[in-house]
Amino acid sequence: MGLSRIPLAQRLGVERACAGEDPSDWRRCGMANPSSVPWRLSGELPLHLEPDADSSVGALCEGLRENADWLRQSLLQHGAIRFRGFDVRAPDDFERIARCVNPALGKDYLGTSPRDAVTEYVFNASELPDFFPIAQHCEMSFCAQPPSHLFFCALVAPATGSGETPICDFRKVWRDLPEGLRERFLAGGIRHVRNYAAPGKRGDAVQLKSWDEMFQSQDHSIVEQKCRNEGFEPVWLEGDGLRLISTQPVFRTHPLTGEAAWHNHATTFHTTSAVGEYEQIVKLRPTDRHRSVLDMARTLEEQILAKPPDERSMHTTWVDGSEISREELEAVRDVIWQNTVIEPWLEGDVLAIDNFAVSHGRMPYEGPRRIVVCWA
Ligand SMILES: [Fe+2]
C-alpha cells in the first residue's frame, strides 16, 4: 500500500480509517481511492505523481480539478507532492499547475532571499550565491499570516548531487525534539532582528538586500504600515538603514488538521546557521569545495559574532534578548537533518508543499540551475 491512510483518518477526525478497498470507505472519508486517479503514485515525502498516459499540463489540470478532494487530502497527509514527467516548459505552465492546487497566489515577499520576478506571481527562487546554504524553513514563518502553500519548479535542473531543494516534515521535527528542548523554546520564545541597507546600498557579505527591495517601496509610511500588518517593529537607522525586530511563535498548528509543527526561523536566522548547515553538508558531501566554504563560513562567523547582536544582518535570540546557545540550535538542526529528504530535481518537476507541515531549503551547487517559486 503506497499511501499510509490511517494516520490521516485519525488526524482528520473521521470515524474509521479508510484502509479498505471498498470505494464506499473512501467516499465516506472524503477521499478518492488512489487507484481511481489517472496517475502513477509512489513515495511518502513527497508523494510522487506521474502521468499514466497523457503528460500535457491541460490533462494534469483537468485531473486535479476532477480529483480535488483526493488532491487536498493527499497534500494534507504527505505534506508535499512532486509532479514529475509532465510537459512543463515555462513559468506559465508552472503557474497553471500551482493554481490548480491553490488559486489564491500571492506576490508580497517579505523574506530575506533576493528574488527577481519572472511573471506577476512567479519569481526566481533565490538569487543567493550558489555556495550559500539555505537552511530548512517554512516560508515566511515570521509573518503574521504565512502562505498556506509553496510551489517550486525546475526550469533548469542542477547537476546531479547538488542544488536540490530538500524538504523536511516539520510536524515530525516538533515531535522528535529531545526531551526538555521543546519546553525550553516554548519558555524562551523567539525574537529576530534583521538589518536592511538603505535603498541602493549593500551592507556586509551576508546582508541580503535593501529595505526598499523587500517592501517594494521607498516610502517610510508604507513600510511602517506593512510592518504593523506583520508584527515587525521598524527602527530607522542613521544613513536610512532599517532594523526590523519581531517575535514569532515557536510552533504553529495546522489550520485544517490541527497538527503542531516546528514553525520558526531560529535555525535560519541565527548567526551560527551557515556554519551549522555547512557542517552537515560536509558530512553528507565531503568535497574540497564544501570544506573550503565551511572554513570561510567559520571565519565570517567569528567576525559577525564580534558585532553586537542587534547590529548583525540577522540574528535570533530568546524573547528577552539573551542568547540561544549553539548547542540548543545544534540539537534542533540534528533533528531537522535526520528528517530531511533530498531528491534530485528533474527538468519540469513541480513541487507543491503544505507550508504549515513541511519545510524547504537549498543545497549548494555549481553551474546552471533555474528554480522558480510561487506561493498562495
Ligand atoms: Fe524559502
List the SSEs and their pairings:
Elements: H1 6-11, H2 23-28, E1 39-42, E2 47-51, H3 57-66, H4 68-78, E3 80-83, H5 91-101, E4 123-124, E5 134-137, E6 149-156, E7 167-169, H6 170-176, H7 181-188, E8 190-196, H8 211-215, H9 220-230, E9 233-236, E10 242-248, E11 251-253, E12 260-262, H10 266-269, H11 273-284, H12 288-305, E13 314-317, H13 326-338, E14 340-341, E15 350-354, E16 358-362, E17 370-375
Parallel strand pairs: 2-3
Antiparallel strand pairs: 1-2, 3-15, 4-17, 5-16, 6-15, 6-17, 7-14, 7-16, 8-10, 8-13, 9-10, 11-12
Helix pairs in contact: 3-5, 11-12
Note down, in words, how this protein is organized:
This protein has 376 residues and is an alpha+beta fold. The chain folds into two domains: 6-171 and 341-375, Clavaminate synthase-like (Double-stranded beta-helix, 4-Layer Sandwich); 175-337, Clavaminate synthase-like (Double-stranded beta-helix, 4-Layer Sandwich), CATH 3.60.130. The protein is 32% helix and 20% strand. It contains 13 helices and 17 strands. The strands form four sheets. Strands 1-2-3-15-6-17-4 form a seven-stranded mixed β-sheet. A four-stranded antiparallel β-sheet has the order 5-16-7-14. The structure holds fe (ii) ion. Fe (ii) ion binds next to loops.
Strand content: 15-25%
Q: Percentage of helical residues?
A: 25-40%
Distinct compounds present: fe (ii) ion
End-to-end C-alpha gap: 31 Å
